[in-house]
Amino acid sequence: MCCCGTPVVNGEMGYKWQPTDKPSVREPNPPSLRDRDVLLYDEPGRCGGLDSHCHHLRVVRHCGLALLVRHGGGEVRLRLQSVLEPALAALDSTSRYWALLSIYHAHNDALRAGKQDADARWETAAAEGRIRTRKQRGSNAVRVWIEDRPS
Description:
elongated; alpha+beta
C-alpha cells in the first residue's frame, strides 16, 4: 500500500511505502526493449487514487504497436491495434498510463477467466471419465481430447 499522500510518479521525490517513512524516490524499472523496437511512450509506475508503483509501461512500434509491462511477476508484451496511436498521442502522461494499465488488466482478467473455464471443463470431464488419449503412431506424441457426453 502506498502512503505517498499526493500522486507520485516513480523517479520523483515523494514516494512513501509506510506512513512513517521519509519521502524518497522509487526508481523506475522499465520493461526491456527488443531489437528494432521504437519507443513511443515510457510510463513509469505511479500512484493517485490507486497504488501502481510496481507497473512500468512502455508502448513501442515494432510491426505494429505493442504494450510492454513490467511488474513484480515479470514482463508481458501485448499487441495493440495501430489505430490506438492517435488516441494515445492525444492523452497526457497520467491519462495514458491509466488507460494502458486498464488494457493490461482487461487482458490479464480475460486470460484468468479463460484458464478457469478450461480447468473446470477438464475437471468435469475427468470426473465423468470422458478424457481420452491416443498415442500417435511412429512418434512420442499423444493426442488428448474430451469425449462428448452421451445423449
